[in-house]
Amino acid sequence: MKKITRILAVALMLSMLMIASACGNDAQQGGQDAQGEQFTISEGTLTMVTNADFPPYEFVQGGQVVGIDPEIAAAIAGRLGLELVIEDIDFDSVVISVETGMFDMAMAGLTVTDEREEQVNFSISYANGVQAIIVPEGSPITHVDDLFADGAFHRIGVQLSTTGDLYSTWDLEDEGLAEVERFARGSDAVMALNAGRVDAVIIDNEPAKSFVEMNTGLKVLDTEFANEDYAIAINKGNTVLLDRVNEALRALIADGTVQSILDKYIN
Question: For position 78, which CATH number holds?
Fold first, then answer.
């Protein structure tokens, strides 16, 4: 029943995104970057979609979406002479909303994967991410190898459609080593861990540290589950915007802006 409900929900989301994309295309117009080159945007804005439950990369503070990704996106928009507009939606709809043209780009701690590259183009990488493992204090899981030990079987909590979901599915669930429970938000997975519904949560390292700081009795294991690069997702049909974003991003990396933003949020 849950599977059928999810299929219907995804179908409805796709229909809404396609309608929004068709309407939005009528408002598309040529923009100019600082060099005067043309690229496709909407009404002088750069629209970014994210899921603001991924601190410190994106989170809600004072009613605004803030964090590493919004600040880097704002710096990119500034170099392109555009106004940044951010939309917060469910993570499992982030990539498809860019693929269908509803938004110009996505920044949500997105890892480049083969599956996602079939849907969208990716910019150069601007940050490195580590998939970490959160467990309760005193857990028998003390090392990543414990998840792969002979006879091991654990309940793993993940955020739906994240790389933590993908890796734990491929490496653990498909190998009969775990049952993966998927949640709409990372914070929901951590709540399930606190309640004893799952044995561990696999999620990106920086959000993992933030969640542990907010929840006593939890810890992040010293050993990582996977290592990956974050990049910006852009519609495959908008290659000129991809080029302009990459140019802006390279300049912001070269002048230290990106590193200063990372240092602001990550010790």
Answer: 3.40.190.10
